[in-house]
Amino acid sequence: MTTEFDFRFGMYPSRVLIREELPSIREIMRALDDGKETGSPALAVCDTNTEPLARAVMGKDTEIPLVVLESGERNKSWESVETILRAGKNAGLGRDGLFIGIGGGVIGDLTAFAASIYMRGARLCLVSTTLLAMVDAGAGGKTGIDLLGLKNLAGTFYPAGLVVMPLGALDSLPQKEWKSGMAELIKTAILDSDDFLALTKKLAAIEKGEQGRTSLAFRSCLMECISRSVSCKGRIVEADPRELGQMRPLLNLGHTFGHALESAAGLGSLSHGEAVAWGIARACELGSALKITPPERGREIRGILDTYGYETAAPHSLANSAASIDTLMQSMRGDKKVKAGKLRFIVPGKESAQIVSIPEDSGAEDLLRGILDGTFRRSNAENTV
User: Fold this and answer.
1) Domain 3-173 CATH class label
2) Is 243 a catalytic residue?
3) pLDDT band for position 314 (50/70/90)?
4) Residue of 151, 187, 233, 316 with catalytic role
5) Hey, what CATH topology would domain 248-379 get?
6) What are the Cα distances from residue 81, in Å, to 200, 225, 281, 319?
7) For position 138, what pLDDT does the model report?
8) Catalytic: 255?
9) Which of 21, 80, 139, 226 has the smallest C-beta neighbourhood within 10 Å, fewest atoms?
């Protein structure tokens, strides 16, 4: 069974297919060319973790070159993009050429960024093979690379013409990568509705059952969660494709704190989702301090994060020194969401979430430092979430 979504992000149409099995290269070509096989030059990109999946997609009779990059956040760099661009040129790709990224969020970001700047924009397909890529990086059209020690400092908006999400690829997903994706799934559920949030709790309960992820009940619930996530994110991005309004920034719930943690801990030291989960907990505390996040909603969100085993306490074990707190503050000041000298955060509200701007003054700095190092929570234990 295949679930299909069609979105339009500004001038870019994007088709998302959620299915059980990996697509073949011929299926990808036909889906992009309205059932025809045009024979336009293509280039596939994967990493050392997803190379077996990539070769399964490509089959034995394809002449499409495959670029295999080293895996991990540390390789989300300009050097990797240059490797992809050079391979595209060597393969003879023109503007009608096709870049195919097969892998998780890092491969998706790298391949999409390369496609967006190759001859000012080539065609793009993503085969998302991790939960994180399916619920976050695959759909929505943000690309990026890490630069100067900051997460996604350079990037573009460039949605893929086709995104395929094969659930079968998740069968061999390591627990760390599974948790990374679940954090983004929970984030989207917070933005969407209480019943979607309840669905994430149901998924956790099924996973802890006797059959775990092998049960049909788990597969069915997972398909519904991914579909709900793609649908929710698609609606938000359609309404605000370039993050110029008040809608798309909501998808950054937990990310201002989370990206800062990734930088302070050292990019690649923990997964993106683990950092976002910690960031969501911090956003709940900030929302509580600003009287935006009701205590019961904050407790519910923290409870779900704890059910999945995320580290949510402050300070984080990888950033628990005074120097680390300084680095966290510095990273947040350099965040892309800073506007007019004010830090912007997304915090949960009674429903969904909302944007708050924090001026850079001594009172605000004391509050943020207290949220980062845990002193705010300890000093307000009876009132905080």
Assistant:
1) alpha beta
2) yes
3) very high
4) 233
5) Dehydroquinate synthase-like, alpha domain (1.20.1090)
6) 35, 32, 33, 30
7) 83
8) yes
9) 21
